[in-house]
Amino acid sequence: MTNWDGCRWDGRSGHYESWFQRANHPTRPLALWIRHTLFCPKGNPGAAEGEIWSVWSDGEKGTTFAQKTELPRRDCSFDSKSLDVKMPGGSLKPGHVEGGTGKLEWNLKFGGGGPVSLLMPEAVYTAGFPKAKALCSMPNAKFDGTFTVAGETHRIDSWPGSHNHNWGSQHTDRYAWGQVCGFDDAPDAFLECGTAQVKVGPLMTPKVTVAVLNLDGRRYELNSIPRGAFVKASIDGFQWRFHSVSDGVALDVALDAAPERFAALRYRNPPGGVKACLNSKLARCTVRLTENDKTRTLTSAHRAAFEILCEDTDPRVAQVGGFQV
């Protein structure tokens, strides 16, 4: 598959799909997140909508702005052959995202970085299971332009980040997801990882953990789904840890963030109901890579993306201050 960013919606079935960009200040705890979404409830394609989401996180002031706009599907367009999303108040094309929601506005160019990074084996992306797919179309991109917060314009000058594409017929029931675009002492490294559980009938599957790490020109793929079921992983409050081993390589990953560095977002599920996405772009990440009895440690003090998907009644929603949008 080469058309990684084209819209996957068939116009009929229940579906969600999002294209999002994230970027961090190279040294300060400042981050932005922009998401264009197509949402179609199961059994009711006439109720499909477009959505524009945005979050600005300021770790220096301890503030987070989160905004969302919902728009009728008839006013939006999504190209099936390329990255071309148009909505009233926002547009996304290769290398350029522009628009605004409420108190947040942006005009950003992005480019560079590495080739498409798949979190799962390529064959999974055309298979029926899992029902949710995720990939990074442009890891370690650089962002330039402006992002305005409540009238205050911030200059975005070569901020590291990524462009990403997700889609599926329903959200994963539970997950933790992480991404680092450049570690403090390894600016060209890239990590993406996830731990997920899904319901099969009345039962919840075991946790499955996958990870990919690009470091010094080499790609470490610990993303076999069958093997991922044997990875030791724990999600405790706002801390996530896992230990994965494959083909003589061991990967120990730890992510965490203070509750005030999360935004709680309502994610509607195509089959019905609402999930809570606890979303931080100012998380801390430590990675230990062991190979041939040699261990290398990578750290990111506050530039890791960290999301936890849970039920909307989860007590952690109240701990982060309740739903922002």
Structure report:
This protein has 325 residues and is mainly β. The protein has one domain (15-314). It has helices at 225-228, 315-319, and strands spanning 15-24, 30-40, 49-58, 63-72, 77-78, 85-87, 90-93, 96-101, 104-111, 117-118, 132-149, 152-168, 174-183, 186-197, 199-200, 203-204, 208-215, 218-222, 232-236, 239-246, 249-256, 263-268, 274-291, 294-311. The strands form 3 sheets. Strands 1, 2, 3, 4, 5, 6, 7, 8, 9, 10, 11 and 12 form a 12-stranded antiparallel beta sheet that branches. The model has no long low-confidence stretch (mean pLDDT 96).
Put the structure in a nutshell.
It is built from 2 helices and 24 strands. It is mainly β.
Key structural traits:
mainly beta, 10-stranded antiparallel β-sheet, globular
Summarize model confidence as the mean pLDDT.
96
The stretches of 5 or more residues where confidence is low (pLDDT under 50) are: none
Helix and strand pattern: EEEEEEEEEEEEEEEEEEHEEEEEEH
Main structural class: mainly beta
Strand percent estimate: over 45%
The largest sheet, given as strand count, sense and whether it forms a barrel, is: 12 strands, antiparallel
How many domain modules?
1
Count of extended strands: 24
Q: What's the overall geometry?
A: globular
How many whole angstroms does the radius of gyration measure?
18 Å
State the separation between the terminal residues, measured CA to CA: 34 Å
Number of helices: 2
In helices, the fraction of residues equals under 10%
